[in-house]
Design a protein that fits this description.
The complex is a heterotrimer. By secondary structure, chain A is mainly alpha-helical. Chain A has a single domain, classed as MetI-like (MetI-like fold). Helix content of chain A is about 75%, strand content about 0%. Chain A has a two-stranded antiparallel ribbon with strand order 1-2. The longest helix of chain A has about 40 residues. By secondary structure, chain B is mostly helical. Chain B is built from 11 helices and 2 strands. Chain B is globular, with a radius of gyration of 23 Å. Chain B starts with a helix and ends with a helix. Chain C contains 10 helices and 11 strands. Helix content of chain C is about 35%, strand content about 25%. Chain C has one domain: Rossmann fold (3-Layer(aba) Sandwich). The chains are: A mainly alpha, B mainly alpha, C alpha/beta. Chains B and C meet through helix 1 of B and loops of C.
Chain lengths: ~290, ~280, ~270
């Protein structure tokens, strides 16, 4: 009787774990299978620039570029800001305020992305339009700015953790030698926290790559690579935004559908790569604690 | 530049960064509150929407959101607990532990729209469910899985080995030890994860927008194979009519309600976690 | 911009008060309303080894850590009174603490080597000062490692990570690292209590060698150690100075009965 319970229990947990661990494979396989049509139809042309389903052209390069440039912009803005803020919260902020600050950051991280999108539409795109005197505020830059705000809490929280985990003795030893606070941080603390901070940045990168709603509303949805290539003040398109806009209107089973799925599959692979690399870095703490 | 002035510049830069972040935070919340509160009225919350959302209220959206995430929680919770138990009590090999970690928490990093197309392919099309709110719950359940698993695992894992040994020494078998000793103690950890997952799930748009929701003429679903309207997708529809001030105002109202719900779940999680911590100290 | 380098480094002997390099006057320290140090009037003579002894919890560490202001980061810290180093008050508004700490160095109880090589550790305090040529660097490393009798042991593996050394060697490395900055005073907070007796003796010998060029202040709860190497003794109990003076006087002819009791039997009823 008891043995039966034990076995049922065991089956239940094994089953649960099986499902939990296999889902990711299921997703990958399903996406790959559904991309097959497009792959066999267009082959390497999938990586071309022109996306024109009515012409049977399914080049996803513009979308890949859009994703890349928007993510890059987001990181360029959020990394210095985020790390400087985390240095503030870890080293300068008095202890009694830490709880409030951490809670505020969590609050910021909890805002749903659609609300960021709404704020982007109602404010940021209008500001960009006014400041740069453009036809429309729906640009790659707007998306980049919005994304940078969205990934800030991630970078700040993780970098702060990395810094506060460093034992106090290193600060004291370094200060005791006559180094200024800035020098202590630069020569002692940052090198020790380096791996964890890189892990944090990669995590933020992964999130930026996968963000859909906020980007979709402010990017303008034009399937083109801007010219010149660095011109952020034009509309563009990202993988996620394209998927969000078109997939529901595309017939299941068509080559068009398959090409969209292929795009999603590529994105998934990239994100998984970065997530794995991020985990590697986050686990690679310097061996100093004897 | 002298060492001292470099130090000062650096500190100024840090202060500026913090101010920028803080300013952004204030701006975001200010915008949501200042625009949202005027849009709220009892009428707004309790009546259904009409005219693609630019008129009427958001009652069905609120109900839809709550329905879809609660069912998702019901689906996800047992799976997450089972997985956490397995990882903590049955899995001993270090390599397998690492591998399972990667596989489960890899789910966290997957873009939400990818979950959406996964649901679209598997449930809506292959399994023929069609646009169904229940499929939405399934997908959200999958997304909540890593979060709940993690917090439950941390809870169970932090219970000292002595508890297990005492229980086994009294003659209970492994499963009884788990259900009578470990689970009760780690339950609050699991619930914390649940509420964190709920807070995230209720704000999701991309995973459900093309598999579970529709934008117009949606009533409360009367069966499983029917779409539902939720707050995030409603906001999306309204945001796309941003030139219409009535629609925009309703968007702010819906956003405000959504944020309140998110904060409700998050705060509950926080409270539970704090209570658990203070219990532990006793 | 205010002149923040207001620490007087060069002074004539005639100006100084009784050959002391550090002295405090009415110095009090509270940490979160607990009165850790009460009305401290202490004199640290130059170029001598001053030992601060007393039972645990008496405030010895807090006292020396106040000299180089490494206590500044402690939450809830309040001070009153003055700590004078070379005739300037260390707690003055425009004192540059980084500069202060390059003049008053510190060796901690547990050796804390940075996750770098041995020679990088020695040079650590100098990396932001002037640019050094490779030859300069080598000279500095050799000079300071010799001063702590570590040169012979490590000269062939200067690029090895510092944490490959034994604890005793690490502590001597920390001393060498402090010496490289060329301070005037070296504070030591129980420098041998984490070490085995042999390494401890090696460190004591180093301290004796250093007396010639530096002023040393070290905290210890080991009375025999104080007897071995101190020139000047300060007995601190429960945050108050019971007695201070030349070591021979305190051991043989102490004025206060509690001093005699403590130095003989290591017992203090405070």
């Amino acid at each position: 009787m008891f043995a039966l319970n034990n076995n049922i229990g065991k089956s239940y947990v094994v089953f649960s774990t099986f499902i939990s661990t296999m889902i990711i494979f299921l997703i990958l396989i399903l996406l790959l299978i559904n991309s097959w049509d497009a792959i066999s139809f267009s082959g390497i042309e999938l990586f071309s620039i022109e996306w024109a389903p009515y012409k049977n052209k399914y080049g996803i390069l513009s979308m890949l570029y859009g994703t890349l440039i928007v993510t890059f912009t987001a990181l360029v803005l959020s990394i210095p800001l985020g790390i400087a803020t985390s240095i503030f919260t870890a080293e300068i902020l008095p202890h009694k305020y830490r709880f409030i600050v951490k809670s505020l950051l969590e609050l910021l991280a909890g805002i749903p992305s659609i609300i960021y999108g709404l704020i982007g539409v109602a404010f940021f795109s209008i500001w960009v339009q006014d400041i740069f005197q453009l036809q429309t505020g729906r640009t790659l830059l707007t998306a980049g700015i919005l994304l940078s705000i969205m990934v800030l809490p991630t970078i700040i929280t993780l970098a702060d953790d990395a810094l506060t985990n460093i034992p106090h003795k290193y600060r004291e030893a370094s200060k005791g030698l006559g180094l200024y606070d800035y020098e202590v941080i630069k020569s002692t603390l940052l090198p020790i926290a380096k791996s964890n901070i890189i892990g944090a940045i990669l995590l933020a990168l992964g999130r930026a790559l996968g963000e859909t709603m906020a980007v979709m509303l402010v990017i303008g949805s034009i399937d083109k690579i801007p010219s010149p290539i660095y011109n952020l003040l034009t509309s563009g398109q990202t993988v996620t935004s394209k998927l969000g806009r078109e997939i529901s209107e595309t017939a299941f089973g068509s080559v068009h559908f398959s090409a969209l799925i292929f795009m999603g599959f590529v994105l998934l692979l990239v994100v998984i790569c970065f997530t794995l690399i991020a985990q590697y870095f986050s686990n690679k703490t310097e061996r100093l604690y004897d | 530049m002298t060492r001292k002035s470099k130090n000062s510049f650096f500190k100024i830069f840090c202060w500026l960064s913090v101010s920028a972040c803080f300013g952004t935070l204030i701006f975001l919340f200010g915008v949501i509150f200042l625009n949202g509160i005027p849009a709220i009225s009892l009428d707004f919350i309790t009546s259904r929407s009409s005219n693609f959302g630019s008129e009427g209220g958001i009652l069905y959206q609120i109900v839809g959101s709550i329905l879809i995430v609660l069912v998702a929680a019901l689906l996800s919770f047992p799976l997450a607990i089972g997985t956490a138990i397995f990882k903590s009590e049955y899995l001993n090999n270090r390599k397998w532990k690492k591998l399972s970690n990667v596989l489960i928490f890899g789910l966290n990093g997957i873009p939400s729209v990818v979950f959406g197309i996964f649901g679209l392919i598997l449930f809506v099309n292959i399994l023929g469910f069609g646009i169904s709110w229940f499929v939405g719950s399934i997908i959200l359940a999958v997304m909540m899985l890593p979060t709940i698993t993690l917090t439950t695992f941390q809870s169970i894992n932090s219970i000292p080995v002595i508890y297990r040994e005492s229980s086994l020494a009294l003659g209970l078998n492994k499963w009884q030890t788990i259900t009578k000793v470990l689970l009760p103690q780690s339950f609050s950890g699991a619930i914390t994860g649940l509420f964190i997952g709920l807070a995230r799930a209720i704000g999701e748009t991309a995973p459900i927008m093309f598999i579970a929701t529709a934008f117009s003429g949606v009533d409360l679903p009367s069966g499983i194979r029917e779409p539902v309207s939720t707050l995030p997708t409603h906001i999306l529809a309204l945001a796309q009519q941003a030139t219409n001030p009535a629609a925009l105002q309703n968007a702010w109202g819906a956003s405000f309600v959504l944020i309140l719900l998110v904060m409700l779940f998050s705060t509950t999680a926080l409270v539970i976690r704090k209570r658990q911590l203070s219990h532990q100290r006793l | 911009m205010k002149n923040s380098s207001s620490l007087k480094i060069i002074h004539s002997k005639a100006d100084k008060q009784s050959d002391s390099i550090i002295n405090t006057e009415g110095f009090n320290v509270w940490i979160n309303d607990a009165h850790i140090l009460e009305d401290i009037n202490i004199t640290i003579p130059e170029n001598k080894i001053t030992c601060i002894v007393g039972p645990s919890g008496g405030g010895k560490s807090t006292l020396v850590r106040s000299f180089n202001r490494i206590n500044d980061d402690i939450e809830g810290l309040k001070i009153q009174g003055s700590v004078r180093f070379n005739d300037s008050d260390v707690y003055d508004q425009d004192i540059d603490t980084a500069l202060l700490r390059s003049k008053i160095g510190m060796v901690f109880q547990k050796p804390c080597v940075f996750p770098k090589s041995i020679s990088e550790n020695v040079l650590f305090g100098l990396q932001y000062q002037k640019k050094l040529s490779d030859i300069d660097r080598l000279e500095i490393v050799e000079e300071n490692l010799k001063a702590v009798s570590l040169w012979k042991e490590v000269s062939h593996r200067l690029n090895n990570p510092a944490n490959s050394l034994s604890i005793g060697q690490q502590q001597r490395l920390c001393i060498a690292r402090t010496l490289a900055v060329k301070p005037q005073v070296i504070l030591m907070d129980e420098p041998t209590s984490s070490l085995d007796p042999v390494s401890g003796r090696a460190v004591e010998e180093t301290i004796l060698k250093l007396k010639e060029n530096y002023t040393l202040v070290f905290v210890t709860h080991n009375i025999r150690q104080a007897e071995r190497i101190a020139d000047h003794l300060v007995f601190l109990c429960d945050g108050k100075i019971i007695e201070q003076g030349p070591v021979n006087k305190l051991f043989q002819n102490a004025e206060n009965s509690r001093t005699r009791e403590y130095l003989k039997n290591e017992f203090c009823d405070c």
